Amino acid sequence: ARGYKNLLVKIKISSILEDYILGEEYVKQLLAITNRWPLAYLAAGQLANASGQTQQALLDYNLALLNIPDINDPRLNEEHLKSVQGYLYFIHSRIGDIYREQKDYPAARNHYQLAYYNNPEDFTILKKIADTYYYQGDLANAIKYNLRGLAHNPQDYNWSLALGALYWELDNKQQALVY
């Protein structure tokens, strides 16, 4: 293997082919030649998550977060800030997905909110936040986040559909029919 870029590609290919043992070997090689490089931990987290090793994925994603530059660092120019925010968005989204699958809805919501903070143009994160409230029986907050999504993206019928279903569940048939 020559260089970290080749190893990143090999890790991704191993994951797609579901050859996780080989992928883990590539991760070890990558970590040996990179010192606390966030992309190495990100690749390791993606591979671990794909192979069903969610605890290892959480560990790797958190190591990536620890090694990403602080968005408040005044040395970051606009281009680098956007890049860092993109990585933060991606990592927090993936961590949120893992916690959602584990039914740890407060932790999932926290990470989805951090993802949304770093990419407020992705309104689908609002739906994921709303769902965490719904799964905990907090229909009022589920409605609140679906309304925010509808306000930002009124052409997406899924917001209206979700709101109608939530109001129907609250036995508010009149409001349900509005959506």
Task: Summarize this structure briefly.
This protein is 77% helix and 0% strand.
Instruction: Give the overall silhouette.
Output: elongated
The amount of beta strand, in percent, is: under 5%
Chain-averaged pLDDT? 95
Low-confidence blocks of residues: none
Structural class by SSE content? mainly alpha
Sketch the topology as an H/E string, one letter per element.
HHHHHHHHHH
Secondary structure: helix percent:
over 70%
- What's the N-to-C terminus distance? 56 Å
Number of strands: 0
Provide a count of the helices: 10
Overall radius of gyration: 19 Å
Largest sheet: none
Oligomer: single chain
Describe the 3D structure.
The protein is mainly alpha-helical and 179 residues long. It is built from ten helices and no strands. The mean pLDDT is 95.
List keywords for this structure.
10 helices, 179 residues, single chain
What order do the helices and strands come in, and which of them pair?
Layout: H1 3-16, H2 20-33, H3 38-50, H4 54-67, H5 78-101, H6 105-118, H7 124-135, H8 139-152, H9 157-169, H10 173-178
